[in-house]
């Protein structure tokens, strides 16, 4: 089975300072299905060390879409946060969409895949839709967060494009129930009866840490709080910093580590300076591999304070939260992050409302002074929850999803 995968970013190694869930998904499906072959198509990004390459049965191509090359920098920190910071980059986005369509059609014609599979609707799903129309190749889409909902802002054209593409798609997966609802809002009740039959709730997966490796007793800190994610508005760090400031008054040994990169790095540093937290808060940049493993093992609390921004940008379900659960950390997350799909408040973590400094402060306080027996129960439940989302299990579900998608059109034509 040959699959052409369209994605905004593709991390082939740890030097790429971007989330790795797309590459981890493809690698796991490939591991489980040696007869599958994948062609990955992603835009070049000047901020990343992208280069075409082939390994095993996965071929990766990064296409160029704008000149000079230094202006190809839309995706490293997230497409919409980048455009929001500099609206002029919408010009580069238009070129990225146009060249993405061109290369999708070209590769589909040349390699004749059994399926075009798009991560994110905008712009990859649009490219898949057009290529499917031109080449009669089935296509499937995974929607991660607001990549469909953002087209609500385009009167008439946006909803028409969404419905046309999704109606023609062979299958659609969404990473959370909130993402599911964002697609549902485009349809009438009668229309939804038909489209919902091909929508599957399938989050990304997580690699479970080795049970034989324990936290480093010399470096573990019982008052260490950890955040991992892109430094963008929807991640909610603008509420975490003041909440942690209040916590630092009650817990003098409390420390906050922020791992990630993004357009809000300078404003976060300014907030840390404003609250006088330079000695208690560290920005560690993007982390992967052993560094991520070490940092996760040696913290007590993992926090995901995500919000829905004023312009509608939101999370689907953060993979980093699944990683926190897999390490048995006390996870604090907003309902709006999509965490309410997997966290039961007080059982395997704590749920709070978005944009609430007081609720975040209260949850952090509760986590830092939690009794040992309660802590152990949450740790156990968190790990058990994460097991349901291991890549081994999720990979099998995505295999079924892709196979169903590739054969659905053939079956309907027989």
UniProtKB/TrEMBL annotation:
SUPFAM superfamilies: UDP-Glycosyltransferase/glycogen phosphorylase
Residue span, Glycosyltransferase subfamily 4-like N-terminal domain: 106-174
Residue ranges of every copy of the Glycosyl transferase family domain listed in the record: 220-384
One of the Pfam families matching this protein, by short name: Glyco_trans_4_2
PANTHER family: GLYCOSYLTRANSFERASE
Name of the molecule in the record: Glycosyltransferase family 4 protein
Lineage of the species this protein comes from: Bacteria, Pseudomonadati, Pseudomonadota, Gammaproteobacteria, Pseudomonadales
